[in-house]
Amino acid sequence: xxxxxxxxxxxxxxxxxxxxxxxxxxxxxxxxxxxxxxxxxxxxxxxxxxxxxxxxxxxxxxxxxxxxxxxxxxxxxxxxxxxxxxxxxxxxxxxxxxxxxxxxxxxxxxxx
Amino acid sequence: xxxxxxxxxxxxxxxxxxxxxxxxxxxxxxxxxxxxxxxxxxxxxxxxxxxxxxxxxxxxxxxxxxxxxxxxxxxxxxxxxxxxxxxxxxxxxxxxxxxxxxxxxxxxxxxxxxxxx
Lengths: 112, 117
Prior knowledge:
The complex is a heterodimer of chains A (about 110) and B (about 120). Chain A has about 110 residues and is mainly β.
């Protein structure tokens, strides 16, 4: 399983763009990159997933360079409600039966 | 509400007692997962079912833990002879294994917070 490394914590202010980078040097050819968000006392919530280049949805963008050894989750114009823990996961659906392997995540604190 | 539900939301028990948690997944989802999360850590995989079959169990799941999904719908997680180290948030998630589903998109419930005194 590819191991991920991401910052333990980040601080930001409302209205700023936040970029959280995740390293996954041992990512395999069949691995996808997935990000989850978790608020206190709630279960994690799927944010975005990608394989290469750039993926954008209504919540975030995911940038993946050509070598796929890292990825960056970009949150545009954050608000106080974006304060949460963000997890980067990599894995292959077929081999893992879909189970998710979470790291420690990045605790994002958005200040007014 | 068609999300994943878990019951109870909170459970306080004394060491040595047995506890049982219930999870009701999203109805059309055939996969169901149990995770455990302690403070400051990401969720840890415990076990998962595809329909009623338990396909994988983590080494974290000691003999005191048992999970069932008798009819491929709801699931229960039982912990026997609880220990203080079992105190954690127990999360349930469900997903669809169909090819059209996004890879690794699991839908989590709110969790059951267990405190063992």
